[in-house]
Amino acid sequence: MRLTLLCFFVLNVLVLSLQAAPVRAEEVGCVSTTFRMLGLANDKVCVDSFRDPKVEGVVCHVSRARTGGVKGAVGLAEDTSDAAVACRQVGPISFKGKLKDGEDVFKESRSWLFKRLQVVRFYDRPNNTLVYLVYSDKLVDGSPKNSISTVPVMPWR
Predict the structure, then answer these.
(1) Tell me: the pLDDT tens digits for 52-76?
(2) Quick one: DSSP state of residue 41?
(3) pLDDT digit string (tens) for 36-49?
(4) For 68, which DSSP code?
(5) Nearest Cα residue to 107 out of 29, 34, 50
(6) Most Cβ neighbours (<10 Å): which of 3, 96, 118, 146?
(7) What DSSP designation does 12 have?
(8) Which are the contacts of 17, defined by CB distance < 8 A and separation ≥ 6?
(9) 46 and 75 Cβ atoms separated by less than 8 Å
């Protein structure tokens, strides 16, 4: 009975994680931060770019640590919660539908099962500004480490 419940739980988590990514990111580049012996993958800091799926004219870049070594190579490492986001207007801004505060614009698994990195968007209506927040969460507890980037909604010239 316990094994059946555990299998059911793991299957549900896997299905939810497959549905998690609102957008796909394109790798911009990585730098090694720790050398690993024996040809194993080094620890790295990587930068990816992605577009907000509901806001035309905005591109974001997210940087985060990736763990190397044997666990990192086979996908069992838990990456740190360190991340930063920078978003910029790259064209005329237009909204594709109604924006919801705290809506996911990017998600990425940071461990094989329980930890996720997320970028969410808020719209600061009084200041006509989009606010992007990157943070990490876990099934049981998250991390207070976070970073924000703001994009004022302005005419494009």
Answers:
(1) 999 999 999 999 887 776 665 556 5
(2) P
(3) 776 677 888 999 99
(4) -
(5) 50
(6) 118
(7) H
(8) 109, 113, 116
(9) no
